[in-house]
Amino acid sequence: MPRTAILTADTHRRMPWKNGGGETVEIAVSPHGAALDDFDWRVSMATVASDGPFSIFPGTDRTLSILAGNGMSLEIDVHAPVVLTQQSEPFAFAADIAVMARLQAGPITDLNVMTRRDGFVHKVERLHIGLNWRGTLPAALSLVLCHDGKAAFELAGERGSLKTGDVLMIEGHCGAALTLAGAAHCYLIVITAI
């Protein structure tokens, strides 16, 4: 039977970036209470107010999504810059290589999902809930971030609702069907142990 919990926006933990360049809002981390150097996986949001390098996380993969603002370009290692905006699909890249961020026009807020490469993989999908969305959850752990708007959910007979900034965390649900209804922009994060 799936276990669900709603992580409300006012319970997210605020903490400094690893490189000291700003503040991040930690939504969820495993193991619970893990520090930046010893998490298995981590989901957070951050406001980026100036150009600068990303923190390095050895042995880690990350996916970045732009939640607010005019976007930024990422110079990853020696590759051509990648421009990310609110309309871009979530962008996956290694968190243990040099990355320089340059803002396009003013501050941005991003969603950052990270997993340790030797134990976990993850996928992030952007969902636009017009009336309803239904999908099968493929892994044992999923999180649904309600970025803006309101969404009602139903999973294995359990019902509830999410408002802006809330996260529905679902554990032990492999193969369960999730329904979301309302008007909202959401992100579905699926984390799988390997």
Automatic annotation (TrEMBL):
Keywords: Plasmid. Signal peptide: none annotated. CDD domains: cupin_HutD_N. It comes from the Bacteria. InterPro entries: RmlC-like_jellyroll (IPR014710), RmlC_Cupin_sf (IPR011051), Uncharacterised_HutD/Ves (IPR010282). This is HutD family protein. It comes from Rhizobium sullae.
